[in-house]
Amino acid sequence: MSLLPVETALHRLLSAARPVTGTEWVAIADAQGRVLAQDVASRITHPPFDSSAMDGYALRSADIAELDTHLTVIGESAAGSRFSGTVLEGQAVRIFTGAPVPQGADTVLIQEDAERLEGSRIRTRFVPAKGRHIRPKGQDFHEGDVVLQAGERLDSGRLTVAAGMNHDRLPVYRRVRVAILATGDELLPPGSTPGPDQIIASNTLGIAAIARENGAEVIDLGIAPDRRSSIEEKLAAARSGGADVLVTLGGASVGDHDLVQSTLVGAGMELDFWRIAMRPGKPLMVGRLGEMQVLGLPGNPVSSLVCGFLFLEPLVLALGHLPERNRLSTAITTKALSANDKRQDYIRAKLDRLPDGRMSATPFERQDSSMMQIFARADALIVRPPEAHETEAGSACTVFMLRDVPLL
């Protein structure tokens, strides 16, 4: 099987994605980042009454056609405590922001435009237009109005309006379930004391973070030794947990100790492809096992993370009814970049902000795919397409953003 270009591999992966259909009702306090499964209509009208937009005096516009009009203040209207009477000719009511406009009043004169006189009198210093500084009933929405639509992700603004519509629970799509399985006799969980031939399994935590950051629920299947029975046992756990995606870490190649691919094929997986024209991350496996998509990532830590960002993130977003996230941007390379071969390179780099607002990208000297520390310090990956020519320092380059770079 020839090496697939990255774009082709991603297209084939996402073309097979089947967005989740299950829904659930969640408390609005727990709904941040979730995707609405139904349209949401308001239960109330907002504002529920004509209200004041400013502190001032509610009055009749007909009474203040001229400057220096004197009015008698007959009461007060505050938020949560309205004035119950009626404003008549020559009268005004002290009013505060958000308070109901009293019956009879049609305008608010802000307090800066009113001079307080002795007793309960004011003098006008400005002539506002009729209706000025009044928010009419239902200006925002009315009871029954569909304000939020299915497919919208609940962020700060949408949660605020949902609460304002008097909803305490919301219908959302269930989270995408991602089961993660690390494989290898040499692996131990973090906190263990490794023997002379063992290493700590670090990939699971990074891949789980990518899944969770994109709204998924993670099922940690732990570590399976290099035995078919162990892998089959973990596969059964992924199925019983209702996983939408099974992510395997390591063992997806076809070496004597790489049993993941053959075991999953033996269990019924339809293998789509398993080698990508990219560096790092060539041995990436994609297939389907019933309703579950399978994504086999390399065991090498950096290769695993790069593939996680390039393939797992867009897959989780597609399954979860969320829009694609564009991480590509442009920077100026501070060092010359050598010519490339037939594989697409992803070079770890540090970003800085230039005085003119553009970003500069400085590739790390060492790019070994086992070096987790460099990946942790990298802000971006410089993307070098296949057969790219040598690039001089100061040239523009495409970068895949791993984190935001602050402005100067």
What is the radius of gyration? 31 Å
Distance between the termini: 48 Å
Strand tally is 26
Largest sheet: 6 strands, mixed
| Count of runs of 4 or more consecutive helical residues | 7
What assembly state would you assign to the polypeptide chains in this entry?
single chain
Keywords:
elongated; alpha/beta; six-stranded mixed sheet; 408 residues; 18% helix
Task: Describe what you observe in this structure.
With 408 residues, this protein is α/β, with parallel strands linked by helices. Helix content is 18%, strand content 30%. The chain contains 7 helices and 26 strands. A 6-stranded mixed β-sheet has the order 7-4-6-5-9-8, with no helix packed on it. The protein has a 6-stranded mixed β-sheet with strand order 16-13-17-21-20-18, sandwiched between helices. Helix 3 runs parallel beside helix 6. The longest helix is centred in the C-terminal third of the chain and has 19 residues, at 301-319. It is elongated.
